[in-house]
Specification:
Layout (H helix, E strand, L loop, with lengths): L1 H31 L4 E7 L5 E7 L24 H8 L7 H7 L10 E2 L11
Antiparallel strand pairs: 1-2, 1-3
Helix pairs in contact: 1-2, 1-3
Length: 124
């Protein structure tokens, strides 16, 4: 039942939000180029690793600069458009595709970033 809810809800949200998603894609390309999406390993149910999809809000390869994978207030690596995408949580919208694929659910805990938990091979 929960999976059906996830599928129906994410499809409806993707349809309703498609103009905002399309506009965001255009703005990202205009203001910061490609790639449009940022992919990051996350740990899902039963310790399955998958790639979470988000709109890119930082400069390309920014994880190799300053504080690495951690961002902070007024981080210079955040793009001009990325600041607004983050402020309005628009950068999270592509995760609806993760929900459709079954990688994650609309309701439940936020999937952990793999490096936050130590070595995956050490987990149960």
């Amino acid at each position: 039942m929960k999976r059906l809810f996830d599928i129906v809800s994410s499809l409806i949200l993707l349809i309703l939000l498609s103009p905002l998603i399309a506009t965001s894609i255009i703005l990202i390309i205009l203001f910061s180029g490609t790639p449009i999406f940022f992919l990051q390993d996350r740990l899902g149910k039963d310790f399955k690793v998958y790639k979470i999809i988000k709109f890119r809000t930082m400069k390309v390869n920014s994880e190799k600069e300053h504080t690495g994978l951690f961002s902070f207030e007024d981080d210079p690596r955040i793009t001009q458009i990325g600041k607004y995408l983050r402020m309005l949580s628009i950068d999270e919208m592509p995760q609806l595709f993760n929900v459709l694929r079954g990688d994650m659910s609309l309701v439940g805990p936020r999937p952990a970033v793999t490096y936050e938990l130590g070595e995956i091979s050490d987990l149960p």
